[in-house]
Amino acid sequence: MVRWTCRSLTARLVRDQVFTAIHYSSVxxxxxxxxxxxxxxxxxxxxxxxxxxxxxxHVLWYYEHAQALAARGQPVFCLDEKTQxxxxxxxxxxxxxxxxxxxxxxxxxxxxxxxxLLLIHDVAAxxxxxxxxxxxxxxxxxxxxxxxxxxxxxxxxxxxxxxNGPTHDSAHTRAWLRRQQGRVRxxxxxxxxxxxxxxxxxxxxxxxxxxRDRVWTHRNQFPAHIQAxxxxxxxxxxxxxxxxxxxxxxxxxxxxxxSSTGH
Length: 263
What we know:
By secondary structure, this protein is an alpha/beta fold. The protein is built from 9 helices and 5 strands.
C-alpha cells in the first residue's frame, strides 16, 4: 500500500490479526492521539553544494540590504524562468457562474502550443519586468538582461540573484557579463537551493494570479497578456516580500537543524 486510509489500514490490522475486530473510527482516534498522518507525505531537500553556507549568506546579505543598495544606485533583482507553459483553449466558451453554480468549463481542451516566461523581480520595490522568449537559451537570457539594464541608465551597478540554470552560467552569458565591465553582477544561489531565490516566489504568485485557468484562443495572445498583466501588477499589487529568513535565522537553522523534517 502506497497511501493508507483509515478503512484500508483497519482492514490490514484485522487481516494481520493485530485486532480481532476494530472499527475504522477507532483507528482514526488512535492515529489522532499519536499525531500520526499516514495519508500525508512531506518532501525534504538538502543542498550538497560545498559552498552552501557561503553562498546562502551572500544572497541573504543582498536581501537584507536591498533597500539601502537601491538608494545608493545599486538595485537588487531576482530572475527566474517558467518554461513550456501550456496554452490550452476550449471548443466551447465557459458558462459563467450563477447563484449556486460555479463557472463551468468544457472538459476537452485544444492545444495552442507553449509559452516561455522570464521574470525579473525588484527586491526593494516588488515590481516586475518580463519577456516571453521563443526559446530558453543563453542569447534570449542576455537579450532580456540588456533590455532590463537599459531601464536603469543612472544605476552604478545592477545585482541579479538567480539559480544555477544552464543558461545562467554558460560561456555565452559569461562573455556578455565581461562586456558589462563590472556594472552587472550575477549572484547564484547554492546548487539545489533555488528556494532562496525570491524570483521563484514572484513567479509563483504571478502565475496563480494571471496564468492559472486562463483560456487561450491563439498562441499570439501570450506575449500581450504577459505585458498587460505585469503592468497591472506593477500598478496595483507590487510590494517587496516580507522576507524573514535573515542570516541570523539561517545560522540558527543550519547549526541546530530546526527543520520539521529533522534534516
